[in-house]
Amino acid sequence: MPPRLSSQEIVDWTRRLNYGTWRFQKGWMPLHVADAEGCYFIDGAGKRYLDFSAQLMCVNLGHKNPAVIEAIRQQASALPYAAPAYATEVRAELSRLLLDVLPPGLEKFFFTTSGTEANEAAFKIARLFTGKSKIIARYRSYHGSTMASIAATGDPRRWPAEPAAKGQGVIFAPEVNCYDCPIKHTYPACGIACADYVEHMIENESDVAAVIVEPVAGTNGVLVPPPEYLPRLSEICRRHGVLLIADEVMTGWGRTGKWFAVDHWDVRPDILVTAKGITSAYVPLGLCATTGKIAEYFDDHFFAHGHTYEAHPMTLGPAIATIHEIQRLNLVERSREMGAYLGERLLTLKEKHPCVGDVRGLGLFWAVELVQDRTTKKPLNTMQDKMAGKSLTVEKVAAQMLQNGVAVQAWISHFVIAPPLIIEKDDIDLGVSALDVALELADAQTR
Question: What is the pTM of this model?
Fold first, then answer.
């Protein structure tokens, strides 16, 4: 056997032979992750880090859950692959289990290997079912990296894909952001004007097939809507014969304190897409779930979609185990309880640090937004700064936290704090304390 690589060699070969995503390649210095367990991961030198954002807001069960690992082993031994045209026991078992946890009315499933692919399926299904072409998405949204899903993404990750993305039939509406309203209204006096804006778009476009929303926007700031927003939007879509697609890739599987974020408002989407926490990210699985009405249409119409890894058995077995673990450990309820504690602790930072403009969240899904000025709400950095490769304050703060043993996701001018749902209060205290210390770097840039 060849000699094992050193930790530095692993980093060097990774940099040399792999692309670092969503970044300029120069200066990329990935941390070597050698091991992980529970809410922590360990680098090549043996240092432990609190995983305060569950990697990419996805390792909901924490690392090395024994039941999920055993499910992977068993499935590999029993049936590692079957083409999607065949029926398998694991596919039938997971599909039946999904009926118990998904919002009522979602009754037919297409399995993918990512949230991106699930959204691609959703767009195609919506267009085939309605016979219409346009998709309304929102600014400050992220729906994936392939062509249709990146075209529906409102944040600057879409910009390098244009003008090709322009041809995907997507138009953008203002996001719901009561902290810094894009249409300059104030809740509740606004009467949910951002939802009315979407209706105006539907009425003035010729062929809108669907509206896609993250019920709680994810990487773009954990934007929690007021309680009237999603019910209003659902009613608008229903009245105009437009499908509502809920992108729950990040918010599903207990992350917000319900099985799915739409459950907070009793909204029943026509299509729901999810991924990430469905297997706690141990294996790559995405899901596109539709109503029975949509499913019936394809009894007599050609379902024009599919791919080699659809319903891959190796991805389905771990999903069954993940759902059972969420139930066994009462993680949906625990997300609400621990999320309330996390929110309280983060709000103390707003009182202490002038750089903190807003703290918002739901369940174990929170954002801390940094600003230059609390009065004007001007952010410390902009989308243009990110795309130009400028040094971002949030990245400096995150780097300081990493040195102190806490890893957190930073995006432009805010942090997404979404730890594993098994996190304990002591771990939360550790993470918030590290953020408290590192925010002094940002305070120096405020006025």
Answer: 0.97
